[in-house]
Amino acid sequence: MIEVVLLGTGGMLPLPERWLSSLLIRVNGAFTLFDCGEGTQIAWREAGWSFRRLAAICFSHTHADHIAGLPGLLHTVANAGRIEPIDVYGPAGTADVVNGLLTIAPALPYELRVTEFAGGERMKLPGELLGSSVAGQHELPVLAYRVDLPRSRAFLPERARQLGVPIALWQRLQRGESAEWADGKITPSQVLGPERKGLSVAYVTDTRPLPELVALATGVDLLVCEGTYGSDDEFPKAVRNQHMTFRETATIARDAGVGRLWITHFSPALLDPGAFAANAETVFAASTVGWDGLSMTLAFSER
Amino acid sequence: MIEVVLLGTGGMLPLPERWLSSLLIRVNGAFTLFDCGEGTQIAWREAGWSFRRLAAICFSHTHADHIAGLPGLLHTVANAGRIEPIDVYGPAGTADVVNGLLTIAPALPYELRVTEFAGGERMKLPGELLGSSVAGQHELPVLAYRVDLPRSRAFLPERARQLGVPIALWQRLQRGESAEWADGKITPSQVLGPERKGLSVAYVTDTRPLPELVALATGVDLLVCEGTYGSDDEFPKAVRNQHMTFRETATIARDAGVGRLWITHFSPALLDPGAFAANAETVFAASTVGWDGLSMTLAFSER
User: Fold this and answer.
1) How buried is residue B297: exposed, middle or buried, by Cβ count under 10 Å (0-12/13-18/19+)?
2) Same domain for A279 and A184
3) Domain check: are B15 and B82 in the same one?
4) Which of A123, A224, B126, B230 qualifies as a FRET site for A261, CA 20 to 30 Å off?
5) A-chain residue closest to B76, CA distance
6) In this structure, are residues B22 and B33 in contact, taking their beta carbons and an 8 Å threshold?
7) CB of B64 within 8 Å of any CB in chain A?
8) Torsion over CA of A251, A256, A258 and A264, rounded to 10 degrees?
């Protein structure tokens, strides 16, 4: 199960009625946060979740509207009692920026481990999540992320009984290990069902559309992707500022065959993003123009 | 005239219903900001004032809850079109912290001039304000500030006429300069009324009470002072954490003979600060337990 909350949906600057774009996901009780602009910790508090189990932060890039909230959040996580390390991922330049911001969080009770990616790397994220990254195209280095929660194959007790496998060995087989006993031996495949689809989420912001982004998001259950401009008329501005229109965002979702699309990172000039929903929906029906606090629980779909 | 807005009243961390403690004052169209925690720019926007004429920022100290909002605010002020310099004042260590935070605001269209004070210094602030500072007592260097808007002495036209001063010289005399003409000469004192009281505001936070703070605030029209704890029972905590209770705050106001007291910088655990108003009011009647957006216009009281 993956719980997802879109903490904010704004780009460039925080507004009284719109937090900056940020995505929080929880898996097996541990949190991974994507981007942390000014005010993200307040939006997180509004979502009603505790701070202590924040274990990883993935930054798309180091523009202030995506990272300025880091020191305040780190203080609040410390106040919540965390002492375990937090992993920070981001593109080239992230370590310098994090170090700069840490001048106002000089004595945290946990370790902050910063890793810079060029795009293409994979990493383990909290709660058994597998992360991957690709480079986007923006004014400075930017990363898009995908997380996968694999699902283990089902253990088939009837099959194990037929093969005479002692019950004491079942758990080992379920974990994917082979087993031997007095009367025989067995490999996991003999008592496990077929491969099962896991759960997956992709987070893409502050980039022009790229084939690599479609590849990254292929088949995800949920794609959270920027759509800075609602109107098709702002396509030239999207090209110039290296963002996307809703139509472009939906085109990525369609081409990647995702389950659902949430659009986020609206220009401050876009006062009513929902008014442009049709520009996305005509391209990809399962599009949602996001709002602060939009949440969803992704659950394994079949037994 | 001095316009004052208490942008936020929180200490330690920003809450969904309470911005971090920050005071904005406007004099002759120019802004001076006191402290800038995470979210201050949003509170400023809620107050409905434009950003372009921010000309000075006075930091009490460099704890994150008083300074983390700086880079975001500087971006927003830049977006509002400012190109003129901004002066930044703060205690020792401010320049390092500001430089750290500027890693996410590396290319501003205006100059940021940082001056560190030890306490006791004076400075010119925007809109003909005169600023002064004293050191407080906290975990790290902290400054309290006072601003004075002097009022010129009234020009007495009847007296000038009696003395035969040509009208062409009146303006010069009003500015405080001596004047000569064919038939005589005159000093300003001969045609100016008595000294007149100006307007003044003091801003004190994150410190234990000190005699120096009483001296700083003596006779100000408005004292904005921290009261982290409402209950007298939390006096030991106030001592330990180097803050004040409402009663201590009001005692400074009373001893300094201020016109009005606004209490701010409430502990996040203080859910209903107003419930402790009596602890201040019994010591100093003109006490107000502050709230986000509390505002006041100080005007010269007599002709």
Assistant:
1) exposed
2) no
3) yes
4) A123
5) A13
6) yes
7) yes
8) -50
Query: Judging by DSSP bridges, how do beta strands B287-289 and B179-181 pair with one another?
Result: unpaired
Is the same domain home to B58 and B183? no
* Structural domain span for residue A143: 2-153+194-298
Q: Is A21 on the interface with B (CB under 8 A)?
A: no
| pTM score of the predicted model | 0.91
* Residue A303 covered by a domain: no
For chain B, what is the domain count? Answer: 2
- DSSP bridge pairs for B114: B88
Question: Measured between alpha carbons, how far is A127 from A33 in angstroms, rounded to an integer?
Answer: 13
Token output for B192: 């100016």
Question: Which residue in B45, B63, B103 is closest to A100 by CB distance?
Answer: B103
B46: nearest CA partner in chain A: A16
Give me the CATH number covering residue B268: 3.60.15.10
Q: Tens of pLDDT along A167-207?
A: 999 999 988 899 999 888 999 999 999 989 999 999 999 99
Q: How far apart are CA A246 and CA A235, in angstroms?
A: 10
Q: Looking at chain A, which residue has its C-alpha nearest residue B95?
A: A103
Residues B188 and B253 in one domain: no
A303 has a pLDDT exceeding 60? no
ipTM of the complex, rounded to two decimals: 0.88
With CB atoms and an 8 Å threshold, state whether A100 touches B99: yes
* Both tokens assigned to B5: 């807005």
The CA distance from B105 to A261, in Å, is 32
CA distance B9 to chain A (A): 15
Between chains, do A46 and B16 touch, taking CB under 8 Å as contact?
Answer: yes
